[in-house]
Design brief:
- Helix content is about 60%, strand content about 5%.
- The protein is mostly helical and about 150 residues long.
- It has one domain: Winged helix-like DNA-binding domain superfamily/Winged helix DNA-binding domain (Arc Repressor Mutant, subunit A, Orthogonal Bundle), CATH 1.10.10.10.
- The protein has a two-stranded antiparallel sheet.
- Strand 1 and strand 2 form a beta hairpin.
- About 15% of the residues are buried.
């Protein structure tokens, strides 16, 4: 089963934008994500409507991060990219009169609902700033290790 990585991919792009403080063209983003510029523009348009990025057309144009990392949550990005389906698990609904189907559906519905609440709470409580800080920490650790292995 193929997963929907739209949220992950856009978080990736936004963190690059936050750390490099530069304008990225749709072509550059497409290359970063191994996709095509049309897909990038389509997905980035949701982030633009939400006010997280700005775009300029023409030479020297592209996409820039405009939102405050401290205020943008992963939930905000999730909504801006079109709220991809969280779980691919679903219930059978062909025979609603079947008592077994009702019991199975009720159990799965509750489990899926509980899991979605946990994920939603986590997405709402995590900011882009928190991800950027984690990246900075890992980067510093990586650089520190590289300095010691070169001596």
């Amino acid at each position: 089963m193929r997963t929907d990585s739209k949220l992950s991919r856009m978080l990736h792009v936004l963190l690059h934008m936050a750390r490099q403080h530069k304008t990225f063209t749709s072509d550059e983003i497409a290359q970063m994500l191994s996709t095509n510029p049309v897909v990038v523009r389509r997905t980035m348009s949701g982030l633009k409507k939400a006010g997280f990025v700005h775009s300029e057309k023409g030479a020297g144009g592209g996409w820039q991060l405009t939102g405050d990392l401290e205020k943008i949550t992963l939930w905000d990005i999730y909504q801006a990219v079109g709220e991809p389906t969280i779980f691919a698990i679903g219930n059978e609904r062909e025979n609603p009169e079947c008592l077994v189907e009702r019991v199975v559906n009720a159990a799965l519905d509750q489990a899926i609902q509980d899991a979605q609440h946990i994920l939603t709470r986590q997405l709402k409580s995590t900011t882009l700033a928190a991800l950027a800080l984690e990246f900075d920490h890992l980067y510093e650790l990586h650089e520190h290790q590289n300095r010691h292995t070169q001596h």
